[in-house]
Amino acid sequence: MRPWLKVVLALSLALNLIVVGIGAGAAWRFHGSGHKMEGPPMLSRFIFKDMGGREVHRLVLKQAGETGNVRNRRRAEMEQTIALIRAETLDVTAVRAIVEAHIVENNDLMRTVAEAWQQRLEGLSLRERSKLADRMQHRLDHPPKRH
C-alpha cells in the first residue's frame, strides 16, 4: 500500500470517528424530554448583533484595507490548504501555520468589533446603558430558539 494512501485512510478514519462521536454526544446530551437545547448566550454574538450588520461590515472592510482583500486571502488559504492536503507527503507544519494565521485574523476582527462596541458604550447615557442591559438580560433569560 502506498504511504500517502495510508495517511488518507487514517485521516478518513479520524474524521469518521469525530462525526460518530459528535452524533453520539448530541444524542446523549439531548435525550429525554424537557431538556433545554439552547446553549449559553455568547457575549460576542450579542455584541455583533448589537453593533448591526452595516457597522460590522464597515469594520471588516476597514480591516481588509489594512491587510488586503479578505475574499482573495480566504480563497488563497483554502487553495493552499487543499494543495497541502493533496501533496504526497502531508506538511502538517504548513497546514498549522495557515490555520494559525486564520485564527489570528479572525481574533483581530473580533477584537476590532469589541473595541468599537466598547467605545460606543462610553458615549451612551445611563438611560441608554440601562436599556442595553435590559436587552442583554432578556437575551440571557430568553435565548433565541434553535431550529
Descriptive terms for the model:
147 residues, 78% helix, mainly alpha, single chain, 6 helices
Structure commentary:
This protein is an all-alpha fold. The chain has a domain of 32 residues. It has six helices and no strands. α4 runs antiparallel to α5. The radius of gyration is 21 Å and the shape is flat. It starts with a helix and ends in a 6-residue tail after the last helix.
Strand content: under 5%
Instruction: Give the helices and strands as they follow along the chain.
Output: HHHHHH
Specify the overall morphology: flat
Overall mean pLDDT stands at: 80
Number of helices: 6
Span of the ends, CA to CA = 45 Å
| Number of beta-strand segments | 0
> Which stretches of 5+ consecutive residues score pLDDT under 50?
none
Could you give a short account of the major beta sheet? none
Helix vs. strand class: mainly alpha
Q: Which bin fits the share of residues in helices?
A: over 70%
What is the rounded Rg?
A: 21 Å
